[in-house]
Specification:
246 residues, alpha/beta, 7-stranded parallel β-sheet, 7 helices
Length: 246
């Protein structure tokens, strides 16, 4: 069993989908958890209530991951509320579909701000607080390595950048005993890509297991990488895609 007792975590984008599952899973493993959300206070409250039911502290922080000032404030509020920071999970992300020839520049800029810049800025703000045994885990995508259909080029590119970020940051933080890793989900049953959606059957056909992942399965991979059991794993990519890249 993964034991995160006494650890303090911050999860960006933790009010729904994979991020919410991560926040709750870390709490169930013993961590106090702060998480950011952009708009839905009601959803954030529900996640905070679920965390509180585990007996752990919960802190919901409204912060737009496209706003550098909001990111810095979220880390500061986490440290103040929890008394420090041991685990950072970069989960916040936005999607984008459509061909490059029709790319909206404002939408593209927000995609890059949230999917690429935000993990860098969250890490920058968190690093001064992370000591020996600290963890940074970022949520990428299997599309970073294989783009099996058109229309997701910009999104795939944004997620591919996280591989270099993870490897490079692991070199910087390794001497401090802080690990940095990447989890690449495949098709996962969330509101943005439901397992009963119009494209679901085509996505299932790409996998070895013939199914979508559940958010809790992705969260389990994150919890492992955040735990002492993964102390020698850094600069690595853990792909959790039901065999889509096999």
């Amino acid at each position: 069993m993964i034991d995160l007792s006494g650890k303090r975590a911050l999860v960006s984008g933790g009010s729904r989908g994979i991020g919410a599952a991560i926040a709750q899973t870390l709490a169930e493993a013993g961590a106090d958890v702060a998480f950011t959300y952009q708009a839905s206070a009601e959803r954030a409250e529900a996640v905070a209530d679920a965390i509180a039911k585990t007996g752990r502290r919960a802190v919901a922080i409204r912060a737009d991951s496209a706003d550098p000032d909001a990111i810095a404030r979220a880390v500061e509020e986490t440290v103040a509320a929890l008394g420090g920071l041991d685990i950072l999970v970069n989960s916040a992300a936005v999607g984008h579909s459509g061909p490059v020839a029709e790319l909206d520049l404002d939408a593209f800029q927000r995609l890059m701000d949230v999917n690429v810049r935000a993990p860098v800025l969250f890490a920058k703000a968190a690093i001064p607080h992370l000591g020996e045994g600290g963890r940074i885990v970022t949520i990428g995508s299997g599309l970073a390595e294989r783009v099996p259909f058109p229309g997701v080029t910009a999104y795939a590119m944004s997620k591919a950048a996280l591989t270099a970020f993870t490897r490079g940051l692991s070199r910087e933080l390794g001497p401090r005993g802080v690990t940095v890793n990447l989890v690449q989900p495949g098709s996962t049953d969330t509101e943005s890509n439901p397992a009963d959606g119009p494209a679901a059957e085509a996505q299932r056909s790409l996998t070895s297991l013939g199914r979508y992942a559940e958010p809790r399965e992705i969260a389990a991979a994150v919890a492992f990488l955040a735990s002492p059991a993964a102390g020698v794993i850094t600069g690595a990519t853990l792909t959790a895609d039901a065999g889509a890249l096999a």
